[in-house]
Amino acid sequence: MDQDIHLTTYSPIDNSLYVERPFAEPRQITAIVDRLHNAQQGWRSLALPEKIQLCIAALTRLQSQQHEIAEEICWQIGRPITHAGEEIRTFTERCSYLLQIAEESLAPLPISGDTTLIRYIKRVPLGTVLIISGCHYPYLNLANTLIPALLAGNTVLLCHSHQAPLCAERLIAAFKEEGIPDGVLEYLHITTDQTCELIASNQIDYVCYTDQYGANPAIRQQLAASAKPCYLELSGKDPAYIRHDADLNYTVPQVMDGAFYNAGQSNCAVERIYVHHTLYKAVQEKVSRWVKQLVLDRPDLPETTLGPLVNQTAANHVRNQLKLALKQGATPLIDPNHFQNAAPHSPYVAPQVITNVRQSMAIMQQPTQGPLVTITPVNYDAEAIALMNDCQFGCSAGIFTEDIESVELIGERLNTGTIYMNRCDLVDPALSWRGCKQSGIGSSLSRTGFDQLTRPKSFYLQAASGSKTSGHWMLKVAN
Is 103 helix (H, G, I), strand (E, B) or coil? Predict the structure, then answer.
């Protein structure tokens, strides 16, 4: 088939063709966008409890398909089958929290005044939201923006990664089977050029874009050129700091899981580890033992704990970054021959930990998105803070210690989106999720996520001279 007119997904497991779909034709795209535009007013007027019930029903349907979804995730992106099933469980948990806070988050904000004046601010939908989603967490990342967008009264068009197209198909099917009105939630399989045309369209009111930094420069350029309001969630180069009082038996497994889960393919994966110099040797020993117990193999095998990267391009990037670091003087801790299934011309990449790195190296400055992490000793907190901040990315930072006051002080000085104490690579839907610097624009989750997908509309209701406003109105606004 002609790849110019067909979407093709090759499985990283064995490079077999796993999915093939025709790209949408221009007339199909126009029809879908018109349908979304025409459906928005009706969806907006539907009561919030009814929207919530539709979402709950769709999530329940997806949960019942967990086994099939896990297999599709495994074959599309190479995540071990024993881990893939966790995605839909975590996805539904995150969505459920957003459903719980929706009424409060979308409620009008009353402003106090005298009896002749009513003032309040409503949150109203933006219109039609385009969600362009990456493949590393093909369902989980969608929860951040999809549910708030729908509950706020927007219609949603989903354009998923070409590496995980079945996720879009299955997700939209679940909502449609549970009765979501036609034109409220749709998907398209389209090219990058077609995506850029959509971004420029006046019928798209907002764009949510999740992907690796630099993965699709044409989309970012189009967003900038069109001045389209948007939410961007891009790569990180996230640090973990192991202080002098950290419990290494707890800390090392936490940090390494944050570095190597999903083969390190996460925008908030740990990619830089800073360790108090008194623990440096002990951490290296424990980290080496932890990495060597990983099983790199086909992800459809139950014993596998580390699968391939999503494709050959991603694998080549990690290998090239490692090769350059070693050429610049870095020292590897892991013998690559320990992982016999790693192959240079495949997505199967041996996990590696390197030391003797300098902050100026590319591996300390540019996202890796793979099973590769650095360890650097530091002498005191101020040095760790300076090094953690010395990077153009900022999703999150994990600090491992028994001293909560120190974490709060350190956290205040870190230029990042989220501060963890004794955790890492974690997204809590009750907290705002946003990156700073080159890691993103805008925020998702928590109440701030609903703010992002609505606009404020102010009401100033002045009673006629000598009359008073109705107490019923004020009560209605307050509720």
Answer: helix
Query: Are residue 279 and residue 166 in the same domain, yes or no?
Result: no
Distances in Å between the Cα of 47 and the Cα atoms of 44, 52, 149, 220 are: 8, 9, 15, 35
Q: How far apart are CA 346 and CA 298, in angstroms?
A: 12
Residue 473 resides in a domain: no
Amino acid at site 358: R
Whether the pLDDT of residue 213 is over 70: the answer is no
Q: State the number of CA atoms in the 13 A half-sphere of 191 facing the CB.
A: 11
CB 206 within 8 Å of CB 451: no
Give the structural domain span for 24: 6-234+439-457
Q: Is residue 265 part of a domain?
A: yes
Identify whether residues 346 and 361 lie together within a single domain. Answer: yes
Answer yes or no: do 38 and 79 share one domain.
Answer: yes
Coil, helix or strand for 206? strand
- What is the identity of the amino acid at 28? Q
Cα separation, 79 vs 309, whole angstroms: 8
Strands 352-355 and 331-332, by their bridges, are antiparallel
What does the alpha-carbon distance between residue 446 and residue 437 come to, in Å, rounded to a whole number? 21
**Number of domains the chain is built from:** 2
* Pair of tokens at residue 215: 């993965």
What are the tokens at 445? 């989750």
Cβ proximity of 239 and 388 under 8 Å: yes
pLDDT of residue 470: 55
The CATH number of the domain holding residue 390 is 3.40.309.10
- CA 475 → CA 106, 107, 411, 466, 470, distances in Å? 16, 13, 41, 21, 9
pLDDT for 466 equals 55
The pLDDT assigned to 464 comes to: 78
- Residue 468: predicted pLDDT: 59
Q: Are strands 440-441 and 230-233 parallel, antiparallel or unpaired?
A: antiparallel
Which member of 72, 87, 186, 233 is catalytic?
233
Residue 465 lies in a domain: no
Closest CA to 431 of 383, 396, 469, 393: 396
Domain at 33, CATH number: 3.40.605.10
Q: Cα separation of 40 and 26, whole Å? A: 21
Tell me: do 453 and 406 sit in the same domain: no
Q: Strand locations in 366-442, DSSP E?
A: 372-378, 393-394, 396-400, 418-421, 436-437, 440-441
Tell me whether residue 20 is one of the annotated catalytic residues: no
Helices (H), 366-433: 381-389, 404-413
Residue 313 lies in a domain: yes
Over residues 361-381, the pLDDT tens digits come to 999 999 999 999 999 999 999
Average pLDDT, the chain: 95
